[in-house]
């Protein structure tokens, strides 16, 4: 992640430090300060920049308005992890930049290309610090991501700071509540299904509201790249109703230690109109015994964090009919390498009688060798044919089912060996 900051200030005196940074909450007991110091040498028209990404555990650390520097008593003092790097002295107006990642300290690592510039007139200070926050446990990282996502846009407890400190003695600190603008990355479009592919399909469990449906897992490769499309079709007893939920999920196996569940969370956004949220979950064990008559994301379903981690999410525009593109507002997106939107928006659609919902999204990964890519596709096929774990739910009557669905594999072209085609990766980027 990266934090971009800019301040307009009074001109520095000789050997005076200015600090600028964000306080970022990663959990109820985890605070990060990410920012920059600039030590001015006004006599020589130069400055030395220091980048920070510091971590505290325990009660939330808040910045206060004090006549002390930002990391003095009463402010952010004595972090558990202190990743910082002082850059070489450069001329005012010249960018100061980290050329390499700095070694990890605790959970925090400063990343290369963190950069700052102190303007030649000494009045403007730009800072962009990049860092990673990593726990050994994926689910812990996921909780931190969720917490940060929810608190970034909520100004509380002095979430930004500017401080000034002369060479000798304490300086002044100004903590300020700000509501930043957060921009989330648009999900990349997937790749069209290859001409040689294996389509595994199985009938969905029937409900009162979703009378029938189809789960599909389509696989193909291109050299080292493997693709897996999760497809869903729900046939309804009545036309889509505003505010009602229609959900399907398919879980299959990718490797000996990786299971993946794709979920389509469709909802009537108005009479005869639909909107989608697609979610991807992963785990290290075969899913089983999820609770019926609950939403897919329920804590007794795919939201069972001891079993699954939600690694990706993408939302469509509201009020879709025959084609459904991504939402312009990407604030609820969760981006992870390997998960993509459908190749074409038309794959996500509502039938003309408003009684059939279709949805699709894609997983892709570059494996170490061609054979490894083929193995992922073959594993997904074999698991699906033996019995993919699938769910269906609607809150029209608040009914749902989970069951092992034995799929039928159809190879295209007929008689071809099981797989072939490909491409792509993905980036997690967040800027504000």
Concise account of the structure shown:
The protein has 432 residues and is mainly beta. The protein has helices at residues 138-151, 370-387; strands spanning 2-8, 16-27, 30-41, 46-57, 81-86, 90-91, 95-97, 108-110, 115-118, 124-133, 160-166, 172-176, 183-184, 197-203, 210-222, 225-236, 245-255, 258-270, 273-283, 309-315, 339-340, 349-350, 356-366, 388-394, 399-405, 408-412, 430-431. 7% of the residues lie in helices and 45% in strands.
What does this structure look like?
The chain has 432 residues and is mainly β. It folds into 2 domains: 2-182, no CATH class; 197-426, no CATH class. 7% of the residues lie in helices and 45% in strands. The protein has 2 helices and 27 strands. Strands 2, 3, 4, 5, 6, 11 and 12 form a 7-stranded antiparallel sheet that branches. Strands 14, 15, 16, 21, 22, 23 and 26 form a 7-stranded antiparallel sheet that branches. Strands 20-19-18-17-24-25 form a 6-stranded antiparallel sheet. The longest helix has 18 residues, at 370-387. Residues 417-432 have low confidence and may be disordered.
